[in-house]
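INFO batch 0412 | record 1 of 1 | parsing
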Amino acid sequence: MLIYLQLISEPENRELFVQLYEKHRVAMYNRANRILHNKQDSEDAVHEAFLKIAENIEKISSLERHKQDRYIVTITENKAIDAYRKKRAHPTEPLFDLAEYSVVDAYSDGDIARCILKLPHGYREVLLLKFDLELTNKEISDALSISQALVRKRLQRARTELRMICKMEGLDDATI
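INFO prediction complete | emitting tokens
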């Protein structure tokens, strides 16, 4: 949420944003997921929607409460539809085949690599581009044709999910 709050200068608008975030984040995800049918794409659409909300918080603060709610739903739907159209128009292929890349061999014990292989494709991809190929967020952004903010968010989500997978696999002491 700090990413969004950095875009807002007025304290009362920050407070409004936090309220809207807490109230709508689950519903926004559910709405996006009904359109996209993909967890990662839905999370990305919600992230893009929250960026748009943060940018337009002045306008939103002047609306009545029910109009604020409708505005947020509309932004979420539009971001999800944009993502759907973009994905249909430009289907993406993985940048590399993980089996061919032999990610399991890249780590001495292979335990963390097996956990990485359990991540969704998009999360695996940004982690490997960042840490194995040592690309910058800008280079990853260019390679995947997504914003740098989205690269940072995917890296954050990938690390969180990887920690959970490692914990379930009994690798509590893994540094991620």
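INFO post-check: DSSP finds ten helices and no strands in the chain.
INFO record closed
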